[in-house]
Structures are given as C-alpha cells and as structure tokens.
Amino acid sequence: MTNMATPALDALRDACAEIGLDARGAEPVRIAENQIWRLQQGVIARIAPPDRFRSAIREIEVARWLAGQDIPVVRALRVEQPLERGGRVLTFWEELPPHRQGSTQDVAVALKRLHALPLPDFDIGRLDPFVRIPERLHAAHTLTDDDRKWLTSLYEDLVGRWNAGLPPGLAAAPVHGDAWPGNVVRLEHGGWLLMDLERFSAGPPEWDLVSTAVRTKTTGAVTEAEYDAFCDIYGHDVTTWAGYEVLARARELRMVTYAAQHAATNQQWRDEAQYRVDCLRGRGGSRPWRWTGIL
Hints:
Blueprint: H1 5-19, E1 27-30, E2 35-39, E3 43-48, H2 53-68, E4 83-85, E5 88-94, E6 99-100, H3 104-115, H4 133-139, H5 145-164, E7 173-175, E8 184-187, E9 192-194, E10 201-203, H6 206-217, H7 224-234, H8 244-263, H9 270-280
Helix pairs in contact: 3-7, 4-5, 4-8, 5-8, 6-8, 8-9
C-alpha cells in the first residue's frame, strides 16, 4: 500500500464506523489527489483533501437535485455526509452498475439535457475555469523557471480576459464543469449516467462544450467526424463563438498544469508534462497535438 493510501484508509475506517458501514476489505480504485475506494457493500468512498468540504456538500446536493430532475446521475448514499476524518473529506456513493466510458455522442446528449434545466434554488456557485491553477503552477517543480513564468503570464492574461467578460453566447445554465466521456459513462444495460460533480456550477454552457472541441482541435483525441456528430446532437458548434479562444486556452492550461502537478510527484509523467508545455509555447508543432492521458 502506498504512503498516500495508508492514512486515507485510516480515515475511511473511522468514517465508516460512524455511519454504520464496514471498511474491512476496502479496495483502492484510484489513488491520486482525490482517492476512490470500493467497500464490500456496493459502496464507493471518495476521499478528498481537507479544503474540499464545502464543495463536497455542494456535490451531494447537486447529485440529489439532478436525480429529482430525472437526470441519470451517480447516487449519493443516504447517510449523514460529508465527513471530515484524519485531515480528509469523505463522501459515500452507490457503486455504479457495469459500465464503460461513454462516447462523445453520450456527452452531447447529456449536456443538451443538463443545459436545458433551470438553475436550482440553492447556491451551486459560479464557474471558475481557473480553480487550482495557481496551486498547480506552484507545485510544478519539474518545469524550468522560464516555463513556469510563461505559464503564469498566460494564466494572468486569460483571467483578465475572463473577468472583462465574454462575448454574448448561450444563456447561463447548470454546467458540469468537466464534461468528457470518462464522466458520462455508458451503462451495459443501456443508457448513460453522469458522474464526478466536483466542478458543477452555474455558468456559460460553452465551458462544457469547449471540452470536446479542445479534445478535437487541440489534442486530436476526438476525430472531426465525431465532433461533427457531437455538434449535430447538441445543436451548436462552440468553435464558431467569438469567446471560444479564451475558454479553449483556459482548458488547455488546465490540462498542462494538471500534468505538471502530477509530474512533480511521479516521474513517469515528466516527459508528457514538458511536451504539453512545449506545445503551448510553440515548440511542439501545430495543433492537433497528441497528448497522453494523465491518470
């Protein structure tokens, strides 16, 4: 068991004892900044850093609200939560039925339904495309000082353009915040399901649409044909919007700083993190680039 997993397991045991769950036999599914553990009772526990308590409350409220709006969504366990134990924030969810990663078409269908909803009558916060980017840049110790300064300058420029206001676009709506096929899963018995609501907020729907556009135009993970089908289903091509560049560059910056943060603690991602920086700085050829996913 890794050094990251051991303290989290202690926190999980304490939290489970309080709400009547059995942590014996808990299995790690993903050990990263946010950890995911599977309990034997068909329960998934998510373990987050200590600064995520308020966002965890919102995530549970959003999951329950979406279920009430007939949106297929991951279900929060009906227990008193979130809990704080051992310097960590814990939430508990029903384990998903058999599923696989969704398609870009699934994402389009899900977003079309999500963006058509009215905003809920509780505070879901306002979209911040730049959340945690300063912390990621601070942690990016494998990058040169020059690269970090350049990324910081890009960050400051994009924040200024965001704060100045985007061009007119789609009406503000509930947005998922991290809409890609890994978070809109395809169930084996049919249908899709929305998960990972940590970035859910109110804001421009274009932010959700930009995710697929960037995976097409920037990284090449989505083909042009797949992107055309995505636009046909949703009914809008965000790349034609005057504000696309700002949000697309913000999404790219998030992807670069995420890789750089992980490279600081995991050597296997150092080359990928540097490659992403090189691409943004014009040292990696023209878009689309071929970025490898960071786990």
